[in-house]
Amino acid sequence: VSPAGLNGATDMARIAVINGHPTRGEDHFGHALAAAYGEGASAAGHEVRRITVADLDFPLLGSRREWENGPPPPPVAQAQEVIAWANHIVVVYPLWLGDLPAVLKGFLEQVFRPGFAFGQEGLPGGSKKKPLSGRSARIVVTMAMPALLYRWYFRAHSLKSLERNILAFAGIKPRRHTLIGSVDAISRRKRQRWLDKMRRLGRRAL
Ligand SMILES: Cc1cc2nc3c(=O)[nH]c(=O)nc-3n(C[C@H](O)[C@H](O)[C@H](O)COP(=O)(O)O)c2cc1C
Prior knowledge:
Elements: E1 14-19, H1 29-43, E2 47-52, H2 64-69, H3 74-85, E3 88-94, H4 102-111, E4 136-142, H5 147-153, H6 157-168, E5 175-180, H7 188-204
Parallel strand pairs: 1-2, 1-3, 3-4, 4-5
Flavin mononucleotide (FMN) binds near residues 28, 143 and 145.
């Protein structure tokens, strides 16, 4: 995270916490993890803005023309403002069918558009301009399988795809991640430890 102020006067970060859990109105570990990260960050004096994807009303992107020429629907434009404001971006989601939940992918397709996230010329890789460079990211993924299985047997394909095909293309680095496995089976105490870890990461804006 780069300093938020001038002349090193402050090293407080501006953090966008994106809760990508698709389920509204129910208790889910993903909601608690996103909240814990934000609490830790606020407690340490960082500025935090939250995006709860499940609360946003937006359509799926339907065409390249729409992607390139917009304008994005208002909730997407607001999310872009938050991401542009931030210098650190946190994304929390559950692994669904080995990948991002569709609503989060749909959100990212809407948000990461040419001009905003990629060079004006269009497609990722088509231009060297990286409008979102200078921002770092943390991705937090929960899953039913052991995290080691996802990492070594499944090669964490979907996580790598998010990191390389979306965040790296947009110039976001460093990109760190936390994989939380066996999440439906772990004890309350273990969950508590993960929440504590999120608060610690939030405090350090990492
Ligand atoms: C539609 C759906 C698909 C899922 N697919 C996977 C999967 O491919 N691999 C896996 O390990 N867990 C899978 N799970 C389990 C979720 O990842 C797990 O329940 C979730 O991370 C728990 O966190 P939560 O309490 O925040 O929902 C799936 C769950 C649902 C509802």
